Amino acid sequence: MPTAPVPPTEPSSSVPDTPAAPLPDPVGGAEVRPLPGDFAVVRMGGRGGRAIRIGQWLNGDGFDDFEHAFVHVGNEELVEAQPGGAELRPLSVYTDGRPIRWSTGRIPLTDDQRRAIVAAARGYVGTPYSVADYLALAAHRFRLPVGLLIRAYVANSGHMICSQLVDQCYQDAGVHLFTDGRWSGYVTPADLANLLDP
Predict the structure, then answer these.
(1) d(CA 150, CA 113)
(2) Which among 47, 113, 172, 179 could disulfide-bond with 109, CB atoms 3.0 to 4.6 Å apart, if both were Cys?
């Protein structure tokens, strides 16, 4: 179970206390009311989704059906990494019935942690995307002899894939989703999905 220490300082931004409107959960079959600071993984179609599945396979995750991740920031909005940079978008872009899995009720968070996650996510809007991170993660998986260079590149939060953005927002709030000693930034959408398995 992920650990969730309270961050040392309280962020100045406020977060709405009310959850999002009920959303269908095509995976679990029940409605979900995500809270600010919760994250979700979702299936992506098209060439982009196929490319991410291949990247996850190269990373040892198999062909998981969850290729994208985002953070709910309240007010029916989310922050996600996109090819043009991290964006603030309406939550409705993922309420089209595609498979989605929420962290709601699965990752315990305090109100302070939720505020910190939301503040971090909003602060990363505009951060560039990096397809090269998938290649760096795969190079690490295959133990190519460029370890320290890869580690520094992946850990650099100046560019992030979607799952790295989610993980970094949680780390910024003092919440460590993974306790297996992995390198900072070494996380794929499939890794996040595996945390949410029933």
Answers:
(1) 30
(2) 113
